[in-house]
Write a structure and sequence with these properties.
2 copies of one chain form a homodimer.
Chain A lengths: L8 H19 L6 H8 L3 H4 L6 H23 L10 H18 L1 H9 L6 H27 L8 H13 L1 H4 L8 H15 L5
Helix pairs in contact in A: 1-2, 1-6, 4-5, 4-6, 4-7, 5-7, 5-10, 7-8
Chain A binds a DNA duplex through helix 3.
DNA sequence: GAATTAATTGAACGTTCGTTTTATTAATTT
DNA sequence: AAATTAATAAAACGAACGTTCAATTAATTC
């Protein structure tokens, strides 16, 4: 056999991405074999190489897409200038809420992006870390502005930014949709904790 | 050749553990081969199997030891009953300080214990998660007591416990000894943030 | 100093890995 | 309807994997 009836490059590529996110987040990147991936997609291993030249480039594509989506998501959620929400406290609230919702909606790719950095070559690792640093810079600038306006009490902006990122990303480690708390309640809770953490009066 | 001059089982086992922690934390468990490990220890691959029956049991041993050490460490650092430090705020301060110092002193095994859970069989995974839950229970009980005494303002004890654990464990992701902040400063900073997070007045 | 035990080597086992090559068929274009 | 391009299958490559086994030597015990 060769080309199968109804086969379509775009659909296959999307199916590969989905299956890869599922398998990598469950088994880990190194533990997932290309044969396993092909089998889950319903295709022969060789077909994968039409879409991704190597296993590592597949991982890189998934991670880059995740980070770019995250940055775009924040760009759209960020309060517009001149509004009341554009003050530091409003921006921080928007940042936390967007971050929580984005990650809860993308558990698989979040796991992949957070746990598989070691499998990237130095060059590709740097590109992902640059995107990450760009995103974290948004948080740092919010904290710096709040410190300047004396609405936040922060000892060290960089350290606080890392602490907040770790805390709010950690939600995907324990949160399960079937648990007692809803996504809204979780987001509200993290918002409150973040505001207390930076010493903002609510 | 066979047994080498000066060879000693205890030393070899310790060397295997050290090398494994180093390699796994750098490459990941699946990416580390037993041949690589043997080479770093300075021994033939077959020699590893005198100390650990399988690769997975080696990983399990490293993780269990890490968690048991963490629990022992907290047992020794925990304030004694009847002292002023035994109030919730003092216990929380001790918990955060011990946690930060313990993890900063054991970067490799922390990475292994946090990132490689997926490589454990169901049974062994459960044993590690039980130890983890036992440790987290200590934090939850501190938060519960502080809530009862009205010295902490906490919406949800479990959620807050997870948030704090994620935040303070995250220190090893970014902290490098050569950076501007000392271990003492970092610990003090996390202590302040934690107290603010639970709404304690300092 | 002989017998025993501990520690390790060297070689090999079958399996699986990521990837490549070639052939074949479906869909699209001309 | 013929020619071309896109999508896949089938088979194979050499390399690396975790692990086992038998042989060998160092250290210890008697």
């Amino acid at each position: 056999m060769a080309r199968t009836t109804g086969s379509d490059g775009e659909k296959t590529e999307a199916a590969i991405r989905d299956a890869a996110l599922d398998l990598i987040s469950r088994l880990g990147f190194e533990a997932m074999s290309m044969r396993q991936l092909a089998s889950q997609v319903g295709v022969q291993p060789a077909a994968l190489y039409r879409y991704f030249p190597t296993k590592e480039e597949l991982l890189f594509a998934l991670m880059r897409e995740h980070m770019e989506n995250l940055i775009v998501s924040w760009g759209e959620a960020r309060p517009v200038e001149g509004t009341i929400e554009e003050k530091p406290a409003g921006r921080l609230a928007a940042f936390v809420e967007n971050h929580i919702r984005f990650h809860l909606a993308r558990r698989n790719s979040t796991h992949v992006s957070n746990l598989e950095l070691r499998s990237l070559s130095e060059k590709r690792l740097k590109r992902i870390l640059d995107l990450r640093s760009q995103y974290e810079g948004e948080l740092r600038s919010i904290l710096t502005d709040g410190q300047r306006d004396r609405v936040f009490q922060i000892d060290d902006v960089s350290l606080t930014a890392m602490a907040i990122i770790q805390m709010i990303t950690g939600v995907i480690v324990w949160f399960r949709p079937e648990l007692r708390l809803s996504e809204d309640e979780v987001a509200a809770n993290y918002h409150t904790m973040t505001m207390r953490l930076v010493g903002a009066v609510m």
